[in-house]
Amino acid sequence: MVGYTPAQASAITGLPLAAVHKAIDTRLIRPRSARSGATVRRLLTKEQLIYLQLEAEGLRLLPVGTRREIAESIQRSPTTNVMALGNGTALFVEFKVARRKIESQLKQLAQIEEMVVSDPDIMRGTPVFKGTRIPVDLVADMLAQGATSEEILAGYPTLNKEKIGIAPMYMHAFPRRGRPSRRRLQGKKVTGRKSFPLRTLLTT
Fold this sequence. Notes:
Structural class: mainly alpha
Number of helices: 8
Distance between the termini: 36 Å
Mean pLDDT: 84
Low-confidence stretches: 179-204
Order of helices and strands: HHEEHHEEHEEHHH
Shape: elongated
CATH architecture of the largest domain: Orthogonal Bundle
CATH class of the largest domain: Mainly Alpha
Largest sheet: 2 strands, antiparallel
CATH topology of the largest domain: Multidrug-efflux Transporter Regulator, Chain: A, Domain 2
Strand order of the largest sheet: 1-2
């Protein structure tokens, strides 16, 4: 059975991770538990992602009881497009657009995973772009600190704009465990090639 972590749900729907956990903790949605070694993960279904997409689009303004009713309806009837609340005239909730968004985002996430590899023999298992030794989190950090795609490409010509563009979503969906990664550009102004630590990141 396919399942998605809270971090992946947040990246896919745009809902803050704290809001995803709150939806779980208040039992609006009920993930299944999956054990991997000593780690127990909470995994969400595609239907639960659709519900969270609705939360991201404003469903959080409704009472908790109404939101729970909507979540349960989506889980029971995955192909339902519209749900009438109350007497059927006060409020209608449309699922079709949210479902399409989730399907599109899931395809994008699968494509992103294909562009990245984590190998113990490459950068000690740090996720890197396939065919390179360039960490995905490094590129995500650069973008977060204001670097443009052109500046990054000037320092890392083996990348392309598509790979650069997927870095933030990948790190959002697959956050590093343990100690947070060191911000390599902390306190530096991004002005071009000289700002990038190129010496140790040669392509394979």
